[in-house]
Amino acid sequence: MIFQSFILGNLVSLYMKDLKNPFILIHENKILDKNIFAQAIGAISCNEVKRPLLVVANDVEEEVAGFVVTNETFSKTKVKVTNNEMIIHGGSGNQVYIEDRCEQLSDAIEMSTSDYEIKLLEERLQMLSSRVAILKVGGATTAESRKKRKRATNALNAAKAAMEEGIIPGGGVALLHASEELEKLPAMNIGEKIGVKLLQHAVKKSTDVL
């Protein structure tokens, strides 16, 4: 299971690697001094088993950039760091704490008046509340598998677009609602009424066919 994925990976391509069972140091501000790692390094050096250190921070001063990469003391935690993102595999978070934090973020979103802040809070909430699903697509032949995979990809993209931009009812439902609104038009002469009835009959046709 992928517990978390962070945009913006490591600062230096030299440190791009996969980390297994690392220690994790998280700092909310920009790291300006190497001494900030003193306690973490001391704790790691006392450990009999050599384990990597993952440092997650808002930003890092150039002279200490070499320290910036990685993780937490979970026995089965794995970390993959690329140039664009960092992915933590094997989440061990407390579900109660996570749900409480999600509620706090939801409250903060409602109270905030800054569009930029709301966007950041929504992204953070999405990271904490999202889940991962694995879709397996196959077929009798390579061509069939490729065709089905393309269909599955298109379906996922359509679902994502609907979540982001919204949807409207299909199957002629919008036209059916529009026909009902025609009844609310002001008083008309006989010719206009006949025209409205014909239009109502036409827009309802797609629903009748279904």
From TrEMBL:
The keyword Chaperone applies. Keywords: ATP-binding, Chaperone, Nucleotide-binding. One of its GO terms (molecular function) is ATP binding. The keyword ATP-binding applies. One of its GO terms (biological process) is protein refolding. InterPro entries: Chaperonin_Cpn60_CS, Cpn60/GroEL, GroEL-like_apical_dom_sf, GROEL-like_equatorial_sf, TCP-1-like_intermed_sf. Belongs to the chaperonin (HSP60) family. This is Uncharacterized protein.
